[in-house]
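Training component of the fellowship. As part of building independent skills, the fellow (R.M.) carried out the full modelling exercise for a liganded target. The chosen ligand was zinc ion. The inputs are recorded below so that the supervisory panel can assess the work.
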Amino acid sequence: MLVDSHCHLDFPELRADLPGVLSRMGDNGVTHALTISTTLETWPAVREVAGASANLWCSAGVHPDERRDDREATLEDLLAMAGDDKVVAIGETGLDYFRVEGDTGWQRERFRTHIRAARKCAKPLVIHTRNAAEDTIRIMREEGAAEAGGVMHCFTETWEVAEAAIAEGFHISFSGIVTFKNAVALKEVARRVPLDRMLVETDSPYLAPVPHRGKPNQPAFVRHVAEEIARLRGIDLEEVARRTTENFFRLFRHARPA
Ligand SMILES: [Zn+2]
Ligand SMILES: [Zn+2]
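Fellow's submitted model of the complex:
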């Protein structure tokens, strides 16, 4: 039993064949998945996909790469979406200084709004951070993100950043990147993160793990991520599956296993 803690099932690559995606999950022991919101406009589609199966849930939020000057998500927008029973998390939110150039103040404001929403509705955060670890951790502390808890998704930062996030009560989620041969430092982080703070994900349709690297990704492939972590830690796949699944349902407590 494995859970894909972060995927984008509303993206056309996956949505076009949702029954196939679900059946390949079943074939690989991937019992549940959390599909992640990235814009206000596509949230209804995310919610609809989550409604297709009792084994799916969704988040509510706007991705830090989605620049919008005309219609920024307000605290009220986020809380309205978060009131839905299928919504078990707020995000994905955070900071991404890699993809966005120029002034990034709007990203930090948006991130703060998401943290406030998560605290208010008592649902955990899904945090995306890229080239912005220092500001991400600082804002988490300033806004009291520890009260909501959550996960640093698709983690690619250093052990020091993982430690700081864990100290704030957060979980660390590994994606297919940990299977890449050149991800030497990340493999070391995956050896060190406490097993009770670890999640696994695909971030599909992106970032397919080895041996599917370069091809479209799907939730069934989270099995390869878990296998690599088991190999790195010298433990059984079953143990990685059991611990990460327990962590998922403890963290996202509004998700009821079916
Ligand atoms: Zn992300
Ligand atoms: Zn994502």
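The panel noted the following from the submitted structure. The pocket of zinc ion (ligand 1) is lined by residues 92, 128, 153-154 (CB under 6 Å). The mean pLDDT is 97.
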